[in-house]
Amino acid sequence: MAPVQTMDAVRWGWYLPRDGALHGPALDAHLMLNLWIALGLLVLAHIVLLVGLMVRRRRAQMPVVVLECLPLLVLTVLFAWLAGRSEHLWAAQRYVGAAPAAMQVEVTGEQFAWYFRYPGVDAAFGRTKLQLVSAAEGNPLGIDPGDAKGKDDVVTSQLVLPAGREVDLTLRALDVIHGFSAPEMRLKQNAVPGQTSHIHFTPTVPGEYAILCTQVCGMGHYRMQATLRVLPAAEFDAWLKGLEAAKLANEVQR
Questions:
Q1: Model confidence over 8-51: pLDDT tens digits?
Q2: What's the whole-number mean pLDDT along residues 179-194?
Q3: pLDDT digits (tens, 9 = 90+) for 193-244
Q4: How far apart are alpha carbons 89 and 87 in whole angstroms?
Q5: b/e burial code for range 186-221 (CB count within 10 A of at least 16 → b)
């Protein structure tokens, strides 16, 4: 279990939203490193221009080729190092799978809403069929009622997660490309029709966070938003058990 922080303990500046995920500090530090290097290069370039304007040009003691190639060599090495750091951070989320004990949640985008599915007590998602998709009939994801694994699946319009536990999100889309983004969790991943993609992270700070769509997916794109709630582990367990009990009661009534 990752350490859980309180909202008051999280520090953030005016330049970035607060950070509520375990991997966030590493991303923020790399971003700030890039910005400071860019600022340093900008200042250096202006100094060189000013010196060139104010001081009479003298004959260089070093060969002209060396003077011209040295800055290019330094910049090449610098940007290669930054690219390597970026690739390492990217791979930790995209190319390295989640731990076997990670919590599984399915995220589905549809014009213009997000749906979140939990696998229930059997820890397995039920089969879905496109021809069964009908939000008006209470089946927005098209869960096949003939599949026993889907009997206990729970679908919500809010993403609720336990603090301190790794979560593996499976992303899907029913119609067009949607961009799943939770800025305060430092997450952004496209959901593409006909494909499934994964992204994993560990929320560490209880609270409410915004979920946005970052792909222009139609006329209602502006309202394709949802809420991510991060709860202490005990509160999350109580919330999930309440949903499972309500689903079971509805099934009995039918």
A1: 555 555 577 788 888 888 888 888 888 888 888 888 777 777 76
A2: 93
A3: 999 999 999 999 999 999 999 999 999 999 999 999 999 999 999 998 888 7
A4: 5
A5: bbebbbbeeeebebbbbbbbbbebebbbebebeeeb
Indicate whether 149 and 233 sit together in one domain: yes
Same domain membership, residue 111 and residue 90? no
| Residue 230 near residue 209 (C-beta atoms within 8 A) | yes
d(CA 125, CA 118): 8
Judgement on whether residues 86 and 116 belong to the same structural domain of the protein: no
DSSP string, the chain: ------GGG----TTS----BTTHHHHHHHHHHHHHHHHHHHHHHHHHHHHHHHS-----SS-HHHHHHHHHHHHHHHHHHHHHHHHHHHHHHHTSPPPTTSEEEEEEEETTEEEEEE-TTTT-PPPB-GGG-BGGGTBTT-B-TT-GGGTT-EEESSEEEETTS-EEEEEEESSS-EEEEEGGGTEEEEE-TT--EEEEE-B-S-EEEEEEE-S--STTGGG--EEEEEE-HHHHHHHHHHHHHHHHHHHHH-
| Domain housing 122 | 103-253
d(CA 25, CA 162): 19
Judge contact between 160 and 236, C-beta under 8 A. yes
Strand partners, 167: 103, 201
Residue type, 143: I
- What is this structure's pTM? 0.78
Domain boundary (50, 74, 94) is at 94
